[in-house]
Design goal:
The complex is a heterodimer of chains A (845) and B (386). Chain A is of the alpha+beta class. Helix content of chain A is 27%, strand content 25%. Chain A has 23 helices and 42 strands. Chain A has a 7-stranded mixed beta sheet, sandwiched between helices. Chain A has a 5-stranded antiparallel beta sheet with strand order 5-4-3-6-11, with no helix packed on it. Chain A is elongated, with a radius of gyration of 41 Å. The chains are: A alpha+beta (845), B alpha+beta (386).
Chain lengths: 845, 386
């Protein structure tokens, strides 16, 4: 809402010399946030000048400039004429003009332009003779502002060279723009802002709506409120006031002061009838509508739309109406307007044609207007106000002000009769325990002060401080005040939020982070410690990504939750795995020159819950257990995952030596690091997974076989389709599975301090046998003395049969209670080898 | 560059010598008498000591050892010749030769030690590496600034005795709106702000704030309740320098007997200090939200100018001395009722602020996109604890 300061000053007493900035700060304290401060942008000295001499000088570029001597009185400090170069020619010696002197500034689209004396066309030009355009007070391109052509003669008569023009031209005017929250519809008016300013500063407020209102005599124009389908039980219109003004000349121009205020408030002057209704709306917050009386054939009937009805609104859009739309109709048939939103072409007031006007000042239901406005994507100044609540008691005053202005500036006369179809319900009251304010806000308010504030904001209060509990009827312009905390907010707001002390509450005492929360941090820190970088990618994907990843038609990962209104039609789905959205981040890094990049992400993924719908039972009441259970179960499962994706070098090249490319073993290692970070033992099983190299993918499982996830090198085709670097490797784990598996207290085993014994074996095995299977057999065969073993070499070649290879294992033995003898170690080793031979046909070399 | 085989030998390693050969092996005795004269033994010792002193390195010393203390060295031969002497001469000759051999072997050991020390010193000099160039064989990765910021905020709340709650990103419409007193005509429920799940009647949205976890926590944990909720949230904004459709919030909710707006302010002051430094307080301004009443916008004191006027005006806060942080207020009775809490007995407050905004101000991040794009260079500017 834009608030011209001088308009505000008409309804509330402003301190002498108050700035727009100060007004904005005062309004912030009562909850009207500053959105901007609009000024002319012209900074003085801007003074009256009289042209003493002007010498035309032709320039090389063919242009003729005038070298002028201008009397600016003592404004330049010397009293000597000011030498100024001017390119325009629409003025003459002796004219009074506006001169901006060095040090002054003018608004430009690029920001303020500071004027200085500068050398141009062979002269030192000390200032500028201004045009209306340069001063921002008109669009006139035709050169210099000659003061008598703009200002009234009596004003010009008082002007002398050197006089300040900033005030005379209204360039000191300021407009404060504030943001109005949805609960304060009344602040979409100067009336409401003035009242708030008064609350903020204590300045004297004069209600512009308290003007003498004609009560009317005789029967007015017939109006029928006929809403047969109120929304949520509230009639669409509970007051419709109609006034008739006859014989007005709508071709007359809007008075200058009104046009200027409209412009400053952000509306364009259009014509007298519209300007007057807009002016009254800005002043009092009551949207008005004017109909051409001559076009009406029957009574004004306010009703809901019928199926199939249409209306072409004033924005020239033909609209199919919805049975919930509230309409203004001529005699119940011809549709004239979407009530409170926008008029139609029928009944429109046309300057030069219309002479008699029917003025509508009505109160429409906020919900009804809001729905119609959103349904038709039709926002208007009227709808904006009705949607947030218009004062139902200002209807008559607003109509009166509009009638008065039309008569004054358009001629004509008002009919004595006034129609006021008034079905306003009684305003509800709120019982308030006055001590609640202190108990809720934490300020020790005097109860008398609480009462005083309630009355200040316009509440009628039954009872006194001694009663403690009083009955409060909020003012007509505050439909948002419906309960005790709402009234408490007013007390806190008017008394000042800055009075609220700071007290740290003593919480009941928490148990710290949960295991899952700590586990996620541990995993992230472990991966970052391994050289991976955390990213947070958007969860939106398209089905095309599933194709790129090579998912089968029936792959469960394709079953994704779909958004009804995605940001992009290419990505309407929510990811079912983190790997689906990591490629962009990897590609972006590579394209920006970070070729060696290992990324990880930890987030939840979304798995559809099925066809169940979540009930939406409404506000202010706890749904029963069954409904709550339905709501909860319709929400998709969203398990936490962790994924990694890497390309480039794992070990970098440098002066220390050659690097090593990242490979699938790194990625499997990182997947293991995730499990290790949580102390969970996982097993590996060679697998084939969509998106992965068929021979380079491993599943990770818990000891009981529960799948944790997988790691591998991406399939070359997938790598190619996604534009990833060659050999990009990746892993995706279900973090929740690991977190659950780790949620127990690990018990420590004592460490043996006896020396270890090491024994190496080389086993020839058929190539199809998995390393992990051989390892398992060795473990089983070696028994308890085996502490650890590792595969340290794999050999295939001339020395072994073609379908076999040789695996070299190093086995570490240790006993808890003694130093092992060579015989013991050899026996254990032989048992291990025997077991491998038995299980896999392994032959020791 | 040195290779792995030329490590300095540890002090005290047995010397690599040929000492200890059996006295009875080798060639027989010769002119024992002359060889065993005091003069000749003395001469052998003199030659040996000179050769030992001449040895410039361990190889040279090895040669000297072989020549003067080896099996065929003159002193060894002299020693062997003692056996052929008449009995009464044996003792004196034995003493003479034994002492001579002792002097030589002492000299050898001393020189061995000297040369080993010289060698060790030389190798250390040769092995010197210039380590002034930054290492980078395996650079450390990083946590994301936003997750670390959210963790820091959560930790501050835990420090006040609160617990950390979580909720789903795809959320029931009821939890996201109705439970929070947004009725079905509230403008925020329209498509221009909220991502809806298909079909529209599914009753599911991408949560537009972390506030639905207020309702979930109240229903699941009951009162009294002090929970903070960090999490990912969604609105239908296009990504630009100041907006992102996917962002993060930290929500706070405290419901107990006797909680007031003063407690809200106290909590925010403590959190502001934790995030922006000692003495940084919060400020409340009247505002409107459907799920709080009274409602407030909260600002924190600009940590750069601290509200002192500067020329030119402070760039961080634009000269206002305050920076907008989020919204807050006393929890609306309708929210408590929807969650089965008696508003006559329990009351409390809630607040929510952007993690992005907090991080951007804390670290002077000008463009939101840098937080989003996943360019590893961005987080590499920060440590793992920020």
């Amino acid at each position: 809402m834009r608030v011209p300061v001088d308009w505000l000053g008409e309804y509330v007493t402003l301190p002498e010399g108050v700035t727009g900035e100060q007004i904005a700060a005062d309004l912030v304290s009562v909850g009207l946030e500053e959105e901007g401060l609009h000024t002319s942008g012209v900074g003085g000295p801007l003074v009256v000048g009289r042209v003493l001499e002007m010498t035309p000088e032709e320039q090389k570029n063919g242009k003729t400039i005038n070298w002028c001597q201008v009397d600016v009185g003592d404004a330049n400090g010397s009293g000597e004429p000011q030498g100024i170069v001017c390119g325009a020619h629409n003025f003459a010696v002796g004219d009074l003009v506006a001169v901006i002197l060095p040090g002054g500034s003018l608004p430009t689209p690029q920001g303020p332009l500071t004027i200085s004396a500068r050398k141009t066309y062979g002269h030192v030009s000390a200032g500028m003779i201004c045009s209306v355009r340069e001063l921002g007070i008109g669009e006139d391109h035709d050169g210099i502002l000659v003061l008598p052509r703009l200002l009234p003669a009596e004003v010009v008569a008082r002007l002398a060279p050197g006089d300040d023009l900033i005030g005379v031209l209204g360039l000191d005017r300021e407009t404060v723009e504030v943001n109005v929250t949805p609960d304060r519809g009344y602040c979409f008016s100067i009336r409401g802002i003035a009242r708030e300013y008064s609350h903020a500063t204590g300045a004297a407020y004069t209600d512009p709506a308290s003007l003498p209102v004609d009560r009317g005599e005789g029967e007015g124009y017939a109006v029928r409120l006929a809403d047969e389908a109120p929304l949520e039980g509230v009639p669409g219109c509970d007051r419709y006031l109609a006034r008739v003004v006859r014989g007005i000349d709508l071709t007359r121009t809007t008075p200058e002061w009104m046009a200027r205020r409209l412009t400053e408030a952000g509306m364009r002057p259009i014509g007298l009838a519209v300007d007057v209704t807009n002016y009254v709306m800005l002043a009092l917050g009551q949207p008005l509508h004017a109909f051409d009386l001559a076009t009406l054939t029957g009574p004004v009937v306010v009703r809901r739309a019928r199926p199939g009805e249409r209306l072409t609104t004033l924005d020239d859009v033909d609209r199919a109406l919805d049975p919930e739309d509230l309409l203004i109709t001529d005699g119940g048939e011809r549709v004239l307007a979407l009530a409170g939103v926008m008029g139609g072409e029928d009944g429109e007031v046309i300057p030069g044609v219309t002479t008699d006007v029917l003025l509508e000042s009505a109160h429409f239901d906020a919900r009804s207007v809001g729905r119609t406005s959103r349904r038709h994507r039709l926002s208007s100044e009227a709808a904006k106000r009705f949607e947030r609540g218009v004062d139902p008691d200002v209807t008559a005053a607003a109509a009166q002000l509009a009638v008065d202005l039309l008569v004054e500036h358009g001629g004509g006369s008002a009919d004595p009769a006034v129609t006021d179809a008034d079905q306003r319900p009684e305003r509800p009251v709120v019982d308030l325990d006055l001590t609640l304010a202190g108990r809720y806000v934490g300020v020790d308010y005097d109860l008398q002060r609480v009462l005083e504030i309630l009355r200040l904001i316009g509440c009628e209060v039954q009872g006194e401080a001694a009663d403690r509990v009083v009955t409060v009827r909020p003012p007509s312009w505050r439909p948002d005040l419906t309960d005790a905390p709402g009234l408490v907010e007013e007390v806190a707001r008017i008394d000042g939020y800055d009075k609220i002390p700071s007290v740290v509450p003593r919480a009941v005492g928490g148990r710290g982070l949960t295991h899952g929360q700590r586990a996620r941090r541990a995993v992230a820190t472990a991966l970052a410690g391994q050289g991976l970088h955390e990213v947070l990618t958007y969860p939106f994907v398209g089905a095309e990504r599933f194709d790129e990843l090579g998912l089968d038609e029936d792959d469960p990962h394709r079953d994704a939750v779909r958004l009804a209104n995605p940001l992009s039609d290419e990505a309407p789905l929510l990811r079912t795995a983190l790997l689906q959205t990591l490629p962009e981040a990897l590609r972006r890094n590579v394209s920006r020159g970070s070729r060696d990049v290992a990324l990880f992400e930890i987030d939840s993924v979304t798995l559809p819950a099925g066809e169940a719908l979540a009930p939406v039972p409404g506000v202010g009441e706890q749904p029963d257990e069954e409904v709550l259970a339905q709501i909860r179960s319709a929400v998709p499962a969203q398990p936490w995952h962790v994924a990694v994706m890497a390309a480039g070098q794992a070990d970098r090249s440098g002066w220390w030596g050659r690097g090593r490319p990242v490979d699938v073993v790194d990625v499997v290692g990182w997947a293991h690091a995730v499990a290790d970070a949580l102390g969970v033992e996982v097993r590996r099983e060679q697998s084939e997974r969509a998106s992965f190299h068929p021979g380079r993918c491993v599943d990770l499982t818990l000891a009981d076989g529960t799948l944790v996830g997988w790691a591998g090198e991406l399939h070359p085709t997938v790598v190619h389709r996604l534009g990833l670097p060659p050999r990009t490797s990746a892993a995706e784990l279900e973090l929740d599975v690991l977190v659950t598996a780790s949620d127990h207290r690990t018990q420590a085993s004592p460490l043996s301090t006896h020396p270890p014994a090491t024994s190496d074996v080389a086993l020839e095995v058929p190539r199809g046998v998995r390393f992990s299977a051989v390892e398992e057999s060795l473990r089983a065969g070696a028994g308890e003395l085996l502490e650890s073993l590792e595969l340290f070499d794999v050999y295939a070649g001339d020395q072994v049969a073609q379908d076999r290879h040789s695996l070299a294992f190093r086995m570490h033995f240790r006993a808890p209670d003694r130093t092992l003898t060579t015989q013991e170690v050899n026996a254990a080793r032989d048992a291990a080898v025997d077991r491998a031979a038995q299980d896999h046909g392994a032959v020791q070399r | 560059m040195s290779d792995a085989n030329s490590h300095p030998s540890p002090a005290g390693r047995p010397a690599d010598t040929d000492e200890g050969g059996s006295p009875h092996e080798g060639s027989g005795s010769a002119s024992a008498g002359s060889a065993l004269s005091q003069e000749s033994v003395e001469a052998h010792v003199g030659q040996a000591l000179e050769a030992i002193a001449r040895a410039r390195d361990l190889d040279g010393l090895k040669e000297a050892r072989l020549a003067h203390a080896g099996d065929r060295s003159p002193l060894a031969l002299a020693n062997r010749a003692i056996g052929g002497l008449p009995g009464q001469e044996k003792a004196a000759a034995g003493k003479l030769v034994g002492q001579a051999r002792g002097r030589v072997s002492q000299a050898l050991a001393r020189r061995q030690q000297e040369l080993e020390a010289e060698r060790d010193e030389r190798i250390l000099v040769e092995e010197a590496m210039d380590l002034t160039v930054a290492p980078g064989r395996r650079p450390l990765g990083r946590r994301h600034v936003l997750t670390v910021t959210a963790e820091r905020m959560a930790d501050a709340m835990v420090g006040m005795g609160w617990e950390i709650a979580e909720g789903p990103q795809v959320e029931a419409e009821w939890f996201n709106f109705d439970a929070l007193n947004f009725d079905k005509d509230h403008p925020a429920r329209q498509m221009q702000d909220t991502f809806f799940v298909e079909p529209a009647k599914a009753g599911l949205v991408l949560r537009t704030h972390t506030s639905p976890v207020q309702a979930r926590s109240l229903l699941e944990r009951g009162v009294p309740l002090y929970v903070a909720v960090p999490g990912k949230t969604f609105r239908t904004d296009e990504l630009d320098a100041t907006h992102t459709p996917v962002f993060h919030q930290l929500e706070g909710l405290a419901i107990d007997e006797g909680l007031t707006m003063a407690h809200l302010k106290g909590t925010l002051d403590r959190l502001a200090e934790a995030m922006f430094g000692a003495g940084i307080v919060s400020r409340l301004r009247p505002a409107y939200f459907p799920f709080t009443e009274p409602s407030a916008e909260m600002d924190f004191r600009c940590f750069v100018c601290r509200g002192e006027p500067t020329a030119p005006p402070c760039r961080t806060c634009g000269g206002t001395g305050w920076i907008e942080w989020g919204g807050c207020g006393m929890v609306h009775h309708n929210v408590l009722r929807a969650c089965g809490v008696d508003p006559e007995r329990y009351q409390g407050f809630a607040f929510g602020m952007g993690v992005e905004r907090t991080a951007m101000f804390r670290h002077g991040i000008a463009d939101m996109r840098e937080l989003i794009e996943g360019d590893v260079r961005f987080n590499a500017q920060f440590g793992m604890e920020i």
